[in-house]
Amino acid sequence: SISLLLRDGLEDPLDDTGLVQQQLDQLSTIGRCEYEKTCALLVQLFDQSAQSYQELLQSATASPMDVAVQEGRLTWLVYIIGAVIGGRVSFASTDEQDAMDGELVCRVLQLMNLTDSRLAQAGNEKLELAMLSFFEQFRKIYIGDQVQKSSKLYRRLSEVLGLNDETMVLSVFIGKIITNLKYWGRCEPITSKTLQLLNDLSIGYPFSVRKLVKLSAVQFMLNNHTSEHFSFLGINNQSNLTDMRCRTTFYTALGRLLMVDLGEDEDQYEQFMLPLTAAFETVAQMFSTNTFNEQEAKRTLVGLVRDLRGIAFAFNAKTSFMMLFEWIYPSYMPILQRAIELWYHDPACTTPVLKLMAELVHNRSQRLQFDVSSPNGILLFRETSKMITTYGNRILTLGEVPKDQVYALKLKGISICFSMLKAALSGSYVNFGVFRLYGDDALDNALQTFIKLLLSIPHSDLLDYPKLSQSYYSLLEVLTQDHMNFIASLEPHVIMYILSSISEGLTALDTMVCTGCCSCLDHIVTYLFKQLSRSTKKRSTPLTQESDRFLHIMQQHPEMIQQMLSTVLNIIIFEDCRNQWSMSRPLLGLILLNEKVKSPPCYPSWDVLGCPRVQPPEKQQAMHLCFENLMEGIERNLLTKNRDRFTQNLSAFRREVNDSMKNSTYGVNSNDMMS
Fold it and tell me: Which residues form the Exportin-7/Ran-binding protein 17 TPR repeats domain (predicted)?
């Protein structure tokens, strides 16, 4: 079809990457069915096209159309060869099949040598993308500790191309990566896929990664990661700020490779960070003057924070992460804060800065462990609080934002702030009790800003945007678990807003959101139940003002507990409940609270589901029995043993109710239940 597409100017199927991937996924399986025939056909077709292509390149009179046709055919063949190699299954493959793979790999690598030698004059973007797809499949199957180095593929590579071992094959990968970054630095699709290949190699098996680090080309990258050698790191005034995303991938890979031999060598770390130090100093110099080139400052800063986020993500060990932390704090943190103050209205600037901060406070792999005499945990949270407060207060001054721009301009930044606060609150490196004890308002400022931001978001938006949903509900889970006194101290309308958001989240399609809401609800009802139980006992310790107010709000609005009890029961009974265990945890607390706040107290019944008393007597009796069985052996407390017993009863209850409804000729519409 290639010649037809080019002659008639038709749409190229290769432009639809999703469809191409689907076809390749099928070919990878089909091609392995009679692999000897498949391989023979691919070799024949490839040799024909490659020979024609080489002859055309050597001919002075070759037409560009003929060259384009052969490049198009070779692009498809390289994609297909990558797919059939990726279809190899270790337990079903034979030495003969590995030798056939070797024949195909040799041909693609020879073609790569030919096309790379011409990149200074011309290159074909689609053919390069096909090569990267091939390399990714080759890496997954034949690079790593699980592959027998006696494989016939490696023998064939040694015979034809002189690649005698995995180290030499890895050097081909790195050579291709550096070549692409040199010649295709302005082509975002090739750059991003090339860097993804580098990233995948850096995650690989430890033995392979160690071999990788010893290569001179990798050492060159670790020592020369500047725009002089890698053009995509340059500040190009023609490019968009969002085009810098690939820099994070690049520095994640470099960070992992650096960590292999870094250990506690601070000199090596300082040497690696020199280009980033220079960039920070440049921005600091700009900020120190009243007049500076704003666009240049933005580009320098955005590139820098994207680079740093990649390094921070890669440094998941305490030793290396502490080097990064001590490098950035306190010297350069004011620059990040200043950027948020200046450009809060420009998400292309604020998003990378906020994401970097969210990464710095994330205690991944317990990397944030400070010495007992160090105040750094508290100081880091102060910076977090300052950034959230600065951004939050300023973003709320934007006023009305058009619906089609509200996520990009406002909600995305708010979502990252929620994630940042959640990471800081759950990192276990700060004792939050000391803030109130010593009159430090950092914690209170961050939490109050969270409430302001939350109240600026309509309920519908909380569930309409998946990333916002996940960040909000995961933060709320931490707050209800560890900071319930703060939740209890909020104004009634704020508490009702939060409870309504939990109630709506219980029915969300996203299982993560639904499970998080169950956990939030469990923490809240457990807190309420304990406070209620305490208030009925003769104790010398009175309830706090916050607890008393929270209880009063719940007693003023018993319908809220009733509604959530009804919602949870409806989901368990009438829907395909994929997280029944999570649903069961708040349910017992809701039942016990419902008994306490209603006057007179009542036990759960068919009425709780919102059904009118129009069921026949035998139906009412059967359902009443189901609810009695649900509470059989259940005590009026929320101890773990009692909860576990209730969870077991709930499974039986669900079966009994479903059986009862199936046997009924009256039936119940689950949509009516939810209304």
Answer: 5-239
